[in-house]
Write a structure and sequence with these properties.
By secondary structure, the protein is α+β, with helices and mostly antiparallel strands. The chain has helices at 8-17, 34-41, 54-76, 83-108, 113-122, 143-153, 160-171, 193-199, 234-264, and strands spanning 23-27, 30-33, 128-129, 132-140, 182-186, 212-214, 217-227, 230-231. The protein contains nine helices and eight strands.
């Protein structure tokens, strides 16, 4: 496999750096943003912050807050004036220079609509989406508890979703309880077979009238919406394709630049 001058991980980080905006907290008037979170996420390569469970996100945000406070304390103690800091800064200068140069190169990369459409049409199989359902569930320890929940739902009438969410918050022992048992859209392979078999048989707006037993306990499941299997529309993934193509172009152009500079340079390898 040919070596690429810039790894995809680094390049992706550069690409993401262009659009940091979200603020998670304020510490003594200083904002804790995506940039602060990204500094911590570097310790977990390949993991996207957005895909983490909410409790883990909260832990990382709290770590970012503590980091912001420690940085402020370091500034207060004038660490930036120390000999050690100045030496470390000098050692980092070339790395920082290269990163800024790469960011500028990334900003120059353009991807046309025709390139995006061409990639989509040539790779439609990559955008196949299985049948998806939007579900809520209530998880309890016993079959009798689940039956009691079902009896409560039978009295809900047209207010079924709100009643289900309230019961989930009150009775469910699952982590999604605080969100009314909402699991969002799921595919069959994302949950245990017993759960999937029961949930995917339900019609939109229906719930299980008998408890569903899994290794975790007894579930009551509500299906709020259904999406049939198909191919994602171009409009829904245009941004993702554009980013991927932009990243690929960036890597190719930086690799070409490195090769051209190598041809012109006098290189002597140590034996």
């Amino acid at each position: 496999m040919k070596k690429i001058l810039v790894s995809s991980v680094v390049a992706f980080a550069l690409l993401q750096g262009v659009s940091f905006a979200k603020t998670y907290a304020k510490v003594d008037g200083s904002e804790v943003t995506d940039r602060d979170v990204a500094a911590l996420m570097r310790a977990m390569p390949g993991v996207a912050f957005e895909q983490l469970p909410q409790d883990v996100k909260n832990q990382i945000i709290n770590q970012a807050i503590e980091r912001k406070l420690l940085i402020a304390q370091a500034k207060k103690e004038k660490v930036q004036n120390s000999k050690e800091f100045k030496e470390a800064l000098a050692n980092m200068e070339e790395d920082l220079m290269l990163e800024v140069w790469m960011r500028k190169q990334m900003e120059k990369v353009k991807v046309s609509d025709s390139e995006i459409t061409k990639f989509y049409n040539e790779n439609k199989e990559k955008f196949a989406q299985p049948e998806m359902i939007k579900v809520r569930h209530i998880l309890v320890s016993s079959e009798n508890e689940a039956k009691a929940v079902i009896n409560e739902l039978k009295k809900a009438g047209k207010d079924l979703t709100n009643k289900f969410a309230a019961l989930a918050q009150e009775k469910s022992k699952d982590g999604a309880a605080k969100n009314g048992g909402d699991l969002g859209y799921i595919g069959k392979n994302q949950v245990v077979p017993e759960f999937a078999n029961a949930a995917f048989k339900l019609k939109k707006g229906a719930y299980t009238t008998t408890p569903v037993k899994t290794q975790f306990g007894y579930h009551v499941i509500l299906v709020e919406d259904k999406k049939p299997a198909g191919t994602l529309a171009l409009k829904d993934i245009k941004g993702q394709i554009e980013q991927n193509l932009k990243l690929k172009k960036f890597q190719e152009e930086v690799k070409k630049e490195g090769e051209e500079l190598r041809k012109k340079a006098k290189i002597e390898l140590s034996k």
